[in-house]
Every structure is written in structure tokens, then in C-alpha cells.
Amino acid sequence: MRKESCCMFTSGVIGAVLLIMGTGLFVSGLFQTLIHNKLKGEITLTEGSKIFGTWKNPPPPVYMEFFIFNLTNPEEFLEGKAKPHVTTMGPYTYREFRPKHNVSFVHNGTKVAAYTAKIFVFEPEKSVGDPYVDLVTTVNIPAVAVMNRLKSLSFWVSSGISLYMGSIGTKMFMTHTVQELLWGFKDPLLTRLKTIKPETDEYFGLMLHKNGSDDGEFVYHTGEQNYLDFGRIYTWKGEKMVSFWKTNQSNMINGTDGSSFHPFLTKEERLNVFTPDHCRSIHMRFEKEVELKGIPAYRFTPPRDTLASGKNNPENEGFCVTPNKCLDDGVLDVSVCRNGAPVVMSFPHFHLGDEKYAQAIDGISPVHEHHQTFLDLNPTMGVPVRAMKRTQFNIQLEIVSGFPLTRNLNNTIFPILFLNESVVIDDASAARIQKLLLIVTLVSHFPLILVSLGVILVLVSIILAIRFYQNKPSAKKDTSFAPVSACAAAQVDDQDGKNGTYIGMTPVDKS
Asked: Is the pTM for the entire model greater than 0.70?
């Protein structure tokens, strides 16, 4: 009985203490603050931090897939008899290695500078064919670039140059292998131009000189002073802003390079990413919650207003350098940062763009799931667990005075190729993040664990108390003894004599 009451009292006291302590810690948020501060201190671009090594040399494999548009009716399109019809060839997949080099700390260690080299290795088992064999017909981009450069000249000068281009076999469309189109070939027109302008590169390729190159020096905030600045770009090529566009807002270098983000992301955030391919920053918004390899993530994707025209999104007014030639939604003229070449960027198949661009080309059909760009980020760590960066390169075809080849062109935005630069977290990295997230969850919810234990112990104490009082006797039963009188004893003897067993004894005669 005493043992039960002792257990009842002990569990009740300990339960009450745990309940009060857990409630106090939960209300104060002490443990959550501690673990958050710990993570903020670990997720920094500083020597010795757990994230620094993987930032310098990312372990998850990155793949670059090229999908090339093959023109099947060049003659009909050039003669104005039909709109262009294209088929998609791809993917031609390359493993991309992105180690950072020349890493150095600057500005008293508050920022880190680095170059990111890009090395491409062909992956035949992930590709549809042999890029050295497969042929593709597309726009003669060197010829269009030359005509675009000369469109300000007089009609007679342009006509003379057009005759010369025809004499060396220059046509509006060209056929080359996928390897040549991507990584370069010696172009006869550029070779002739090199004799006039020695600085001209006689080779052309969409990825010419890209293998083993980098996009220039980036300087990043380490995030040590403010976790919200983790990975944010401070300067690119020594500049805090680009100078391609009309307004300061358009020229701003905002956000990160897309490889890292600050921890403790929220669904309401607007994530900015600077992309040298677009020569500008783009923004992304939360779309939905996803999960990959047991890791919860938020999916962020560019909304429609990212590449909207200035008339539909005033933030983008500065991206139209030539006011009377502004493009509509979903496309961006980047000729200002492509040495004058009429290059137009968009999402694949003109996804999120004005319908007229997709309708102008047979074989183009945007599908959100296949053509969107997105980032799946774990909100606690800010770590990308999956990413798909999808971009399309187009050439603007328009009539150029003095060049008969262009007489039937009508400002068509012609698709050349689109690429998908993808990364999915590897199993080893996923296991480490899962372990860390478990620790974060346990520590953050430690007060709730104390509250739960307290509630359990209090309930145990109550149950023991109920059982104790149910088993306790309601009244004591006393046993008393009274002395027996002689009469009572005689009565008992009589009763015994009458009713009990009697043995008779006969007296013995002594005589």
C-alpha cells in the first residue's frame, strides 16, 4: 500500500514539473531558436563550415540535355508558301562538372570570390543518337547575324554584300551535324570576314568555347553576418550591375546563381536568380509542396510575369532596348549581350509566352510539366534537392533591306534548340540531410516531448490514485471476547451431556 502511494506521488510531481517546463520552453521558443541559430551558423560560405566543401565541388551529378529543332520544309518557308515545320531531335545528354576554382575570401572575409568552370562529357547511354552523325537543318545563324549587323547600311551596299554572300554559297538555312552545331565548325562566310576583320572568329557553334570555360568571376556573400544573404551575388565580373538594359531596375544583379539559397525559406518569398545566359535576373514563386527521397521541399518556378512584356509588367519595361520593336510576352531579346546577333531567349516551346509565337511554328506545343523551369528546395536547409533549368534559344528572322533571301520573312521567332540543365540530389547527400532534418525536428520539438511525457506521467498518477482509493477498506472489523459465566458453562455441559457422546462409568465395589 505504501509502495503504490509513493509511485503515485512521484509520477504526479515529475509529470507536473515536465508539463510546466515543456510548456514554458514551448512558449519561449528557446530550443527552436537554439537550433535555428546553430543552422544559421553552419550554413555559411566559410572555411570549416559543413556546406563549404559541397559548395566548392557539388557532389550531385548535373546533366545538360540538348533538344534541337530540325526544319523539315526550308524551301517552302523561305518562299513564303508555308510556316516552318520543325521536329525535335534529342536529348543529346552531357554530364556537366562544375567545380569552383580560384576561391578566395575578400572584403575582410565577409565575401568569397570564385570562378565556376563548366566541363561537359557526352553520355551516349542517355542520348538518342550520335551527335557526330545525326544531321540537323536550321537557320544559318552566322549569315543572319551578318545581315543583322549590316541592316543600317544603304540598300546598294547591302545588295553588293548580298551578291558576294551568294557567290560563296551562303544560304538562309544550313545543315550540319549536331556536334558541329553545338561545339563549332569553320564557317566559310566568317572565314572571308576574318580576312577583313582579323578579330573575327571563323568558327561558329552554339556552345563554342564553352567546354571548360566559365562565366567570369562571381563574388558571393558568405551569409555569416546575415543568413538571408547566404550565396547572394555581390558582383559579377567586378560589377554590381550589368549595363545591357535601359533602366537600373533591369540592370540589377539580384539573388543567387541558383545553386544555393538561405535556410528557413517561406512560401511567400520571391526568390531571385541571376542567369548569365539571359543577361539578367529572373524571379521565382512558390508553386506547391513536393517530396524527393524522403526530403520535403517547396517547388519554386518562374511565374508568367517573369518574361512578360513591359506593357503587362512594368518591371520589365527596361528590357526593351528598342521601343518600337518591343516583343510580346514570353520572349526576351538578348542581342545587346550577344554581340548584336538576333538571339531571343524564351522557355521551351514558348511556355508562358504569347500564343502567337507557338502558333507561328508547326511542331511547337508548350506543356507545363515538360517545359517549366523549377527548383525544389528543402525549406529548412535551403538546399536544392532537384532542379530543372530549361531555356530555349531562338533567332529573330525579319526582312533586311538589300538581302533578297529575307523578302518573305515576317519577324518570325525561329526556335533553334532548348536545353534542360538538371540536377537531382544523390543518395548519400539525401541521407545526410534526412539525418540532419531529424535532429532539427527532435530538438525543435523537445518542449513538446517534455509536455507529452508530463501528460503521460500525470495520467499515470491519476490512475494509481484511483486504484489506491478503490482498494482501501471502508471500515475496520473488531473481534471481542467476553467471559463465560458458570451458569452458561453448566448449560453448555448439559447440552453436551444430552447431545454429545457419553461414556458411562460404573463405580467399583471395594468390599
From this structure: yes
